[in-house]
Amino acid sequence: MSYQLNKAVAYIKAGKIVAFPTETVYGLGADATNEIACQRIFSLKKRPLSNPLIIHVASLEQAERIGDFSEDAYKLGSLWPGPLTIVTTLKDKKSIANCALANLPTVALRVSSHPLALALINEAACPIAAPSANPSGYVSATLYEHVLEHFASQDIIALKAEDGCVYGLESTIVDVTSNIPVILRYGFIGVELIEAIVGKKVGSAANIHTIRAPGMLTKHYSTKIAIRLNAIHLQIDEIGLNFGESKLLGNYSLNLSEKGDLAQAASNLYAMLRQLDKYAENNSSIIGIAVAPIPLCSSLGIAINDRLKRAAA
Ligand code: TXA
Ligand code: MG
């Protein structure tokens, strides 16, 4: 085990916080069975206590000990390890810290494919509760440097990933606590794949009125500066975020993917939003980020547009 990982494992065991990479975004993790450690995540992020954390485990077997797996849950578990979170009914209330669950009778479980995430969970020998490693409401962190910007002054350890978080968008969340699975958050794993795996039509959070993913209803993933979507031209006091051949050119602009590749755009999205936000912070004449249209043609396009819509809300 590397020195870095060794130290991180010791931190988790001591009830402290470790930021670790997943294939989606960085997580800010603590021993999910330790109430005080989990409370510290909420205070570090300034996260509302009503917003539960995802519980990261290393295998389906470990997930089954925490959540009650229905037939649909088992089917979706075949996509693990991967960018998918499954919400099931909680088996044993005492197995996970209350605050991590926000007192809900359900639990969001995820097996990440990132080797550092898996090693951390296995070596610490406990489930790890982890939200994205950003202050509540701000853009998620996809690079080690992003995590340090927010939390370097705190007593945490951040594990450095060689290649960052390749997917760059948070996991798809599917709630399987009723007969019809419901997609609570869009991501790389799209509706078509989920429907093919469970063998039936699924619902979407857009059609339900109760708050099933508390974090999904509010303004989220936001930069400090305003965002304007589906922009065709750059206004004089704006900076631009392009996609493909769009031409939001002027003061300063970036391109999510010059070749118009949605996976590359997803991977770049948060780092570029952060870069533009920083530029605006240092240039008082800039009042907003204009974002070019991103095609809605696939589940990935839907996921990117979903994040942008919340960022601009
Ligand atoms: O890709 C990801 O999912 C990343 C990495 C670190 O795993 N994590 C992440 O966590 O995005 P966070 O906290 O930023 O988003 C988790 C979402 C929140 O909207 C929360 O409300 C929802 O999951 N959630 C957690 N537990 C839930 C539950 N029992 N029922 C419904 N939604 C739940
Ligand atoms: Mg988050």
Would you give an account of this structure?
The chain is an alpha/beta fold and 313 residues long. 32% of the residues lie in helices and 18% in strands. The chain is built from ten helices and 15 strands. Strands 1, 2, 3, 4, 5, 6, 7, 8, 9, 10 and 11 form an eleven-stranded mixed sheet that branches. Strands 12-15-13-14 form a four-stranded parallel sheet, with helices on one face. Threonylcarbamoyladenylate binds at residues 22, 24-25, 27, 51-54, 85, 87, 104, 106-108, 110, 130-132, 170-171, 173, 184, 212-216.
Major sheet attributes: 11 strands, mixed
- Percent of residues in helices comes to 25-40%
Total helical segments:
10
First-last Cα distance: 44 Å
| Strand and helix order | HEEHEHEHEHEHEHEEEHEEEEHEH
Mean pLDDT: 94
